[in-house]
Amino acid sequence: MPLTRFSSDAFGVVTISLVVLFHVLAIRCIYQVVYLQVRIHRRDFLQLGYFNGPWITRIFLVIVAICWSLSEIARLSFLKGRLFSSITWQRNLCKLYILFNLGFSEPSVFLTLVFLLRASLRRRESGTLSQGWNKRTISCVFLYCIPIFVMQVFLDFAGPRFFNEAKNDGRAKKLNYFTKASVFVGDECVCTYPLFSTILLGLFHAALISYVSYIGMHVFLSVINKRLLQRLYWLVSSVIFSLPVRVLLLGFSVLPQPGNLAYELIVFLAFLVMLLCTVIGILVLVYFPAADLMALRNLEEIEVQGMPYDDYFNDSASLVANQSRHDTRRSSDVSTMRGSISFRTMIRDDTPDLDITRKERSMASFAEAPPGDPKAGEKIFKTKCAQCHTVDKGAGHKQG
């Protein structure tokens, strides 16, 4: 028993440490996305508004992942025993953990990942990455989670009534593995994973893996950037391999005695696999896109700072004209309009005013003349005018 308590506490401390590190990453991602959206709203990064369109969905993904990680802390035996002394409260907490974790948070995380991945294949004319798309996506995530949540409620609360726990035969004890969400170990209640709930989660993950594989193949064919291709490979691979491993580990958790070292190790590995897949998904779909947009903006600022004054003035005037022309449209549409600094080549306008040009040529000609000889300056000026006229005439013939 002391070894069991020590192993449980050790895995609990490691779990809490990993969750804290994950929360640091999650808060960093939320800050970066919100900061970028605020700058876009202030028209500082207006050209990047379209690419930060799914910012609400990205924040929703991070928040749901945080809720999932908090539920993993709630199931820990040593923490649950210190917070709730009542066995009834501990049993109810285990049931709520199964409902929230396997019925909502975990499916919501992967559904949001799929929607964000699928959005890259949609055409812009279909309204993808707009504010309306964010609302529809979050609504669809809740809608698709309702069936699995209702089935988990039925299996968690109504399932045990189909089995008579008063029987002492081995068959009844084996059937308890399919429905029981908690087991008494000493003076504590250890949360377990009912086999029926795990099977239901496995069916959901099987359908999700099939769809992710289908979407991933289409995205692989359309991605031309090597770095984006590597990120997509990591994301799709983590979903395809992590979800089956997690379901298998949760299924095998019914074999050892709950609370001992083997059980704690299996449950911890299942948590670690899920955490790894979630971190990869958040990095690929939330952190890296925001970081790329910030890097693009910084590069753009460097180019503008190194630009001559005339180029900066002409480019800014073009941008202001386009913004005033399209103010009635969505701010996200400005990013790909003609005249956006980010998506067009800066062309310098080398057509100065004719009078200013003649004046400059005249001043230069008289400056080259000897002192006290105005006729020499006038002669140099006429010679340069004739040369420029010849050059302009030759350029006109070439253009014709």
Please outline the major beta sheet.
2 strands, antiparallel
Flag low-confidence runs. 302-369, 395-400
Outline, from the CA principal axes?
elongated
Number of helices: 12
Mean pLDDT: 73
Please report the total strand number as a whole number.
2
Organism: Ensete ventricosum (Abyssinian banana)
GO molecular function, one term: electron transfer activity
Domain Cytochrome c: 372-400
Transmembrane segments: 12-34, 55-76, 96-117, 138-155, 195-220, 232-255, 261-288
Question: What do these coordinates show?
Answer:
The chain has 400 residues and is mostly helical. It has three domains: 2-300, Rhopdopsin 7-helix transmembrane proteins; 307-343; 354-399, no CATH class. It contains twelve helices and two strands, in the order ααααααββαααααα. It has a two-stranded antiparallel sheet with strand order 1-2. A hairpin with a 2-residue loop joins strand 1 (182-185) and strand 2 (188-191). The termini are far apart. Mean pLDDT is 73; it is low at 302-369 and 395-400. Keywords: Heme, Iron, Membrane, Metal-binding, Transmembrane, Transmembrane helix. One of its GO terms (molecular function) is heme binding. It comes from Ensete ventricosum. This is Cytochrome c domain-containing protein.
Overview features:
mainly alpha, 3 domains, two-stranded antiparallel sheet, 12 helices, elongated, disordered C terminus, membrane, transmembrane
Q: How is this structure best summarized?
A:
This protein has 12 helices and 2 strands, in the order H-H-H-H-H-H-E-E-H-H-H-H-H-H. The chain has helices spanning 2-41, 55-74, 77-83, 87-119, 131-158, 170-176, 195-222, 226-252, 261-305, 309-325, 354-368, 374-399; strands spanning 182-185, 188-191. It comes from Ensete ventricosum (Abyssinian banana).
